[in-house]
Design a protein that fits this description.
Elements lengths: L9 E10 L18 E9 L6 H4 L6 E10 L4 H10 L27 E6 L10 E6 L3 E3 L1 H8 L35 E3 L2
Parallel strand pairs: 3-5, 3-6
Antiparallel strand pairs: 1-2, 2-3, 4-5, 4-7
Family: Belongs to the alpha-carbonic anhydrase family.
Protein name: Carbonic anhydrase
Organism: Asbolus verrucosus
């Protein structure tokens, strides 16, 4: 990954999703106050300047995260490859291997401009090491695909189900939107 706001080469390290209990919340970014059902983060690290992800995460230009809004709508074929496996993962800590080719580029909305800014990770340690690229247009995912995420359990098999408001399911795993502070957001129109 290079170009646009990126002066160096970045390679995909991992991707993950944040989602809400309902389809009107779950994204960690908003556009003019509008929230989305979820947000996919494709986390890249700077391979031009740094030798490892851990090293890159210590520097302001170390990581680039592509943020893609998820909107309830039609089924996303590429996401099916993931949600099909999630139904086999019953408890926290369990894993499954994706046995088919997965193209993360298919999660990027076509013909979408983006917003970019220098910011932080949204999960601990929340380091200020991210060049954010947040696409303007959401990608559609089906309500069933969203429910697959919401059906993941938040506890390990050997643990008791927590008596929480979500009965042990992973819901609202997003960081609330924070004030911009002195951050400057730039817009790229497509």
């Amino acid at each position: 990954l290079t170009g646009g706001p990126l002066e160096h080469n970045y390679i995909l390290e991992q991707f993950h999703c944040h989602w809400g209990e309902t389809n009107d919340q779950g994204s960690e970014h908003t556009v003019n106050g509008e929230k989305f059902a979820g947000e996919l983060h494709l986390v890249h690290w700077n391979t031009t300047k740094y030798h490892s992800f851990a090293e890159a995460a210590k520097h302001p230009d170390g990581l680039c995260v592509l943020g893609v809004f998820l909107k309830a709508g039609k089924r996303n074929i590429e996401l099916d490859k993931i949600t099909a496996l999630l139904s086999k993962i019953e408890f926290k800590g369990q894993t499954a291997r994706i046995g088919v080719p997965l193209n993360p580029g298919l999660f990027i909305p076509p013909e979408s401009g983006y917003y970019t800014y220098q910011g932080s990770l949204t999960t601990p340690p929340c380091s200020e090491c991210v060049i954010w690229v947040v696409f303007k247009e959401p990608v559609e995912v089906s309500p069933e695909q969203l429910m697959t995420f919401r059906s993941l359990k938040s506890y390990c098999k050997e643990e008791n189900c927590p008596c929480d408001e979500f009965q042990g399911f992973v819901k609202n795993n997003f960081r609330p939107t924070l004030p911009l502070g002195k951050r400057e957001i730039r817009e790229c129109r497509q």
